[in-house]
Write a structure and sequence with these properties.
The protein is mostly helical. Helix content is 76%, strand content 1%. The chain has one domain: Orthogonal Bundle (Farnesyl Diphosphate Synthase).
Amino acid sequence: MLTIEKYQKAFVNYLNEFATPKAPNSLYEPIEYILGLDGKRLRPLLTLMTTEMFNDNYEKSLDAALAIEVFHNFSLIHDDIMDDAPLRRGQQTVHEKWDLNTGILSGDAMLILAYQLFENYEGDTFKALAKLFSKTALEVCEGQQYDIDFETRNDVTIPEYLKMIEYKTAVLVGAAMKMGAIVAKASIEDQNKIYDFGKNLGIAFQLQDDYLDAYGNPESFGKQVGGDIIENKKTYLYLKALELSDTNQNQELVKLYNDCNSNNEDKIAKTKQIFDVTGASMATKQIIAKYTENAFKLLDTISISSEKKALLKQFGIALMNRKV
C-alpha cells in the first residue's frame, strides 16, 4: 500500500485531468473552480485506500473515487446556495463568485458527470456501484431536507439529529469505502462491514465539523466560524446544551436561537458561553470519540491484515484530532 500522501497526490492528478476547460465556459468554469479549491479529499482517498486494503490496484477505483468527489462538491454548491453561505474553504462560494443560476446549473451538471464516471465499469461492478450511488445520493438529499426542517423546529431530538448527519454526511463516507471494496471484488460481508466502518467514521467527522464550526480558527477552518449558530442549526452542541442546562440557561439559549435581529458576534459569544458552562462542548468531544471507537471496533472484524487495519485506524485518529 501507498502512504496517504501518495494516494492524495494520485487522486489530485487524476482530478486535474478531469477538470479541464470545456465549452460552454460559463457552465464548466465554476465546476473547475469548486473542484480546484483545497479540500480534504477525504472520501475519494478512502475509496482508493479501500481498494488496496482488499488487495487490488487503487487505479481501478479512480473513476469511482472521482464520482464521489464530484458528487460531494455538487452537494456543496447547492448547500451553499440554500445556506446563503459566503465562503467555502476560505474562498467565495460559487453562487457568490458567479450568480445563483450558475450555481444551480453547474451543480446539476456535476451530478450528471458523477453518474457518467460509473460508465467506465462493466457488468456487475457497474450495477453495484450505480445502485449504491443512487441510494446514497437520495439519502444525502433526505439528510439535507432534515437539516433545513430542523432550522424552524424547536423540538428536535438528539436521535433525530444523529439520523440527519448520518444521511447528510456519513452515508457518503460509507459509500466511498464500499465502492473501493466493490471494485476490489471483496466479499459482500466485508463490503457491508467497511461501509459501516465508514459510516461511523463519517458521523464522528460531522460531529467534529459541527464542533469546529463553533470553536475552530477562522483562518484554518475555511468557513465562517459560528455559521451554524447564526443559521439557528440544531447541532449536537445546541441539543446537548438544552439537555444539560438549567431553566435560565435553557430559556436564554432558545431565545438566542429565535432572535433574528441580534448582533451575530454577540449571539455567537453568548451561545458558546452556554455551550461551555453546561458541559455541551465537552460532551460533543466525548461523542466524537465514541463514534470513532465504534468504527475501530468494526475494523477488527474485517478480513484484512493488521497492518492495513492500523493504517485505517491512524487515518481515523487524525480525523478526530483535526483542526480544520
